[in-house]
Design goal:
The structure is a homodimer. By secondary structure, chain A is of the alpha/beta class. Chain A has a domain of 129 residues: 3-Layer(aba) Sandwich (Peroxisomal Thiolase, Chain A, domain 1). Helices cover 34% and strands 18% of the residues of chain A. In chain A, strands 3-2-4-7-1-8-11-10-9 form a nine-stranded mixed beta sheet, with helices on both faces. Chain A has a two-stranded antiparallel sheet with strand order 5-6. In chain A, a hairpin with a 4-residue loop joins strand 10 and strand 11. The first copy, chain A, is globular and about 55 Å long. The model of chain A has no long low-confidence stretch (mean pLDDT 96). At the A-B interface, helix 3, strand 3, helix 4, helix 5 and strand 8 of A face helix 3, strand 3, helix 4, helix 5 and strand 8 of B. Strand 3 of chain A pairs antiparallel with strand 3 of chain B.
Chain lengths: 380, 380
């Protein structure tokens, strides 16, 4: 199989884009990636998106975006795995290149969640969970994560305030990212004033939705020796409903996909310089750290409390704000993570630059851990 | 690249499955395909589906289906390209095998369109078209196809009754398929009694929706020398909105994907023994025949009038009923076509068997020709 390189990146700021349509968001990010790569024609386009079918009354985004990019006749399709849609699109882009079938692939993540008259985002997000066995009983998506966080606190003896450093880190880092939705660091006092959303999850333990799009232009690595290289790529599923898991504090799909990615890259967790993880909720950040071998079970929160996750720590995470501060345009998030990791490895992360970053990891999660996609990128 | 073989097929009858959930439909078809192949564990699962996000309030079908199939830890994702979703899922399954990344892949198409309280199927289907430039103006999906058919009649001088042989063929063939929704041949009198739905499209020019699921188990061809082989596979897009096309009577994405598939297979249209085409509307069947080199522009309807498309004709189409009689569970249809073509090539099509079938073609269309996926299969 051919190795894959990231030749171009593009993103639009995560915002409430009231006067920009979903197609335009996707096109803006895609054009930026194509311009960055100096590539005008691609073989295929994979679009990650979760909710356009009902929030925007628009399906067939693959053809729509390809059409408005002027890429007539190419292959194009949308991939959906809830909040893991963009990471899943990246997987297919990589396979298309590695198979030898395509020589230039555009991977786009896009989501337009505001300006959706008459349709509620909470209902749309609930479709990530099991409609018959979870949602039917009235539990919301944040409610499911609250159950997991409550169990974590009970099992390992933490207080809900112990999770605050995840938010401090994300917001401090987001303040250095011009594409982030929130650009102010937060203090303990601000955190304390965050209202409870679904006990024990408070405002700053949860990520904000937003409108956004991010894109990558992929090529075979042999054609771009100077470009950031994909050295590991894997995806795995777990049960959709959290009550079906042996242990709701174990992200088995993260363990499995990270292990596969490490094996492909021939490295271990100790060689990862930074980690763009899926901090949709603080407890998910802790579980990701544990599942990927950076902390023992129950020590993910301790890592945050000790400052290991901050810039300059042993494993900086969410270096450009993460889902909490950059924002979480659900089906686009996985691509934002990959764009950010690429910028870090190119040394183009501005004030948020991690010194000496050589290997970066990204992890995109769909649902409460049901679909997890892990990538490892390396500086050329 | 490795060649791909179809080791197992599975399908459920297209019906109004009032007491079967979308997950169960998918699982039933998938289990049948796995059993047919004698394979118990796969590397990845690609699920084609269009409307589950709003009609069933369920997203993340990849993980859901993999979970309930007991395929924990595999890679799984949903693909969506409107009515071309299942064909698009097949494309990714093929690429996953040909890349060398996977050794056994399950491809499933599923749609559950009845029992969707409070949500209308017509609105859900309209999301296949351009929300801003087509649907916003009040045109429905059948309305768009009526515009195309009207133009066809005007341009080539046909009467709407000239399209009837497409329906006669489909319903006669569907009567021999136990999985078909409609199992009665229709007469000219019955056709004449079909009410106008969107002038000039009448009842029997349009395909019925339904609930259904179909699945294939793919493996590398070298591991299954006795299995039906995929000798051509390609997908292409056209503009989403039909008013953006140079010529609305030309399915450019069909031309392009068919041409690519012919090249891969090293054959021409004259070597194709039967064609499972996407007769969502009769005019689309005519346009597919023309785009793929079986008829000159304007002669697609003549081919039907001459009986060339019937069993025993020069190019039998919709041999097990097509979308019109087997039924059109939108995101599943592309897989039904592939299952049916495989059965024909195995000689397992029962009363509908095409004698001496050696090479079969399938073509799955998303929207009014915006995404078109073409496959060529060969008897081992």
């Amino acid at each position: 199989m051919r190795q894959v390189a990231i030749l171009g990146v593009g993103q639009v700021p995560v915002r409430e884009h009231w006067d920009t349509s979903i197609r335009q968001l996707a096109i803006d990010a895609a054009r930026a990636a194509m311009q960055d790569a100096g590539v005008e024609r691609v073989g295929s386009i994979y679009v990650g998106n979760m909710t356009s079918g009902n929030l925007n009354q628009q399906r067939q985004l693959g053809a729509l975006v390809a059409d408005f990019l002027g890429q007539w006749g190419v292959e194009a399709v949308k991939l959906e795995a809830a909040c893991g849609s963009a990471g899943s699109a990246m997987r297919q882009g990589i396979i298309a290149i590695s198979s030898g079938e395509m020589d230039a692939v555009l991977v786009i993540g896009v989501e337009k969640m505001t300006e959706t008259p008459g349709r509620t985002t909470t209902s749309a997000l609930a479709t990530a969970a099991d409609a018959d066995y979870e949602i039917e009983h009235g539990v919301s998506f944040v409610g499911l994560n609250a159950l997991i966080m409550r169990r974590y606190m009970h099992e390992y003896g933490y207080d809900r305030r112990d999770f605050a450093p995840f938010a401090f880190n994300a917001h401090a880092n987001g303040s250095k990212n011009p594409y982030a939705l929130f650009r102010q660091p937060i203090s303990q006092k601000i955190w304390d004033n965050g209202r409870i959303i679904a006990d024990p999850i408070s405002l700053f333990d949860a990520s904000p939705i937003g409108d956004g799009a991010a894109a990558l232009l992929l090529v075979p690595a042999e054609k771009a020796p100077e470009a950031v290289r994909v050295i590991g790529s894997a995806s795995a599923i777990d049960t959709l409903a959290i009550h079906d898991r042996e242990d709701i504090l174990r992200l088995q799909a993260a363990e499995k996909s990270a292990k596969a990615a490490y094996q492909q890259a021939g490295i271990g967790p100790d060689q990862v310089d930074f980690f763009e993880l899926h901090d949709a909720f603080s407890v998910m950040a802790a579980l990701s750290l544990e599942a990927c071998g950076f902390a023992l079970p129950g020590d993910g929160v301790k890592m945050a409390m000790d400052g290991d996750i901050f810039p300059g720590g042993t494993l900086p995470i969410c270096t450009l704000g993460g889902l909490k501060a950059r924002g979480h345009p659900v089906g686009a998030t996985g691509l934002y993570q990959l764009v950010e990791a690429t910028l870090q490895l190119r040394g183009e992360a501005g004030d948020a630059q991690i010194d000496g970053a050589r290997i970066g990891m990204t992890q995109n999660i769909g649902g409460s851990g049901a679909t997890i996609v892990t990538h490892l990128l390396q500086k050329p």
